[in-house]
Inverse folding.
């Protein structure tokens, strides 16, 4: 069974383009690795599902400094909003919302390409945020891993699929 | 001043919508986090226009659109979405959406679409 009609490198490339477009920052992708994981290890992990002809899960992990710098870049680029001018009380919610929007567009980008490749509609589940290192993604998963490197800090990407798919 | 309810589960989009419309002729009377809130706010405020994100937890934007247009067939709803799939847009338009905008969008683009829809 093939993982996807799309190569994982292409999925990561689409994710990178969304990241670069939303933040306005140049970045590059690390090497794509085929891996098996049972825990993620970031301050914030966002999990999304893409459902349709091919089902997969996308995990995006980053540390708290990266969450701040990425949110700040996106708010400024897309809304002309200076993060320092926002109220301290509303900041965590806005930063989380900004990262959710980023990851939502990442998964939508893959879903649109999948829909184009399979000629069948794909659905994207709303992003779910998991806080704290050692987040259990719900059992051992096999899939593909890489990271986005930029001045904003590392962003780790993991696309999970059925174990048989990577055999 | 035309009134607006905006529904989006993303706090980033909600804060941007507030900023974009602050200096326009539109007044935001409600910001909803999901479709259920949007429907409840519509029934309470009867705004001139509603913006609905499609992907939201609970009742999504398409579901909210259907409930709002069933309650008020004259409701003016604009869909905001990252999903530029023809099927999704066709379905929304068939259920009474007056227009749609693909994210990312700029403030002026949103305001022009809202002016067009309010004028219909």
């Amino acid at each position: 069974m093939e993982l996807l009609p799309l190569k994982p490198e292409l999925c990561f490339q689409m994710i990178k383009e969304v990241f670069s477009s939303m933040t306005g920052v140049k970045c590059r992708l690390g090497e794509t690795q085929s891996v098996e994981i049972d825990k993620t290890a970031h301050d914030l992990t966002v999990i999304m599902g893409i459902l349709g002809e091919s089902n997969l899960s996308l995990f995006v992990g980053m540390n708290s400094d990266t969450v701040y710098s990425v949110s700040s870049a996106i708010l400024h680029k897309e809304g002309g909003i200076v993060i320092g001018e926002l109220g301290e009380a509303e900041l965590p919610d806005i930063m989380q919302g900004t990262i959710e929007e980023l990851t939502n567009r990442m998964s939508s980008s893959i879903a649109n390409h999948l829909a184009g490749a399979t000629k069948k509609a794909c659905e994207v589940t709303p992003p779910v945020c998991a806080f704290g290192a050692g987040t259990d993604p719900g059992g051992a998963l096999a899939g593909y891993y890489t990271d986005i490197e930029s001045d904003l800090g590392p962003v780790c990407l993991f696309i999970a699929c059925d174990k048989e798919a990577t055999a | 001043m035309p009134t607006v309810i905006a529904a989006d589960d993303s706090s980033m989009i909600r804060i941007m919508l507030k900023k974009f419309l602050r200096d326009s002729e539109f007044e935001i009377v409600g910001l909803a986090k999901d479709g259920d809130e949007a429907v409840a706010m519509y029934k309470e405020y009867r705004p001139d226009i509603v913006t609905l994100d499609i992907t939201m937890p609970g009742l999504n934007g398409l579901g909210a659109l259907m409930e709002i247009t069933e309650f008020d067939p004259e409701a003016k709803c604009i869909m905001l979405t990252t999903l530029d799939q023809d099927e999704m847009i066709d379905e929304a338009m068939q259920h009474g959406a007056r227009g749609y905008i693909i994210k990312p969008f700029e403030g002026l683009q949103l305001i022009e679409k809202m002016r067009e829809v309010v004028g219909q």
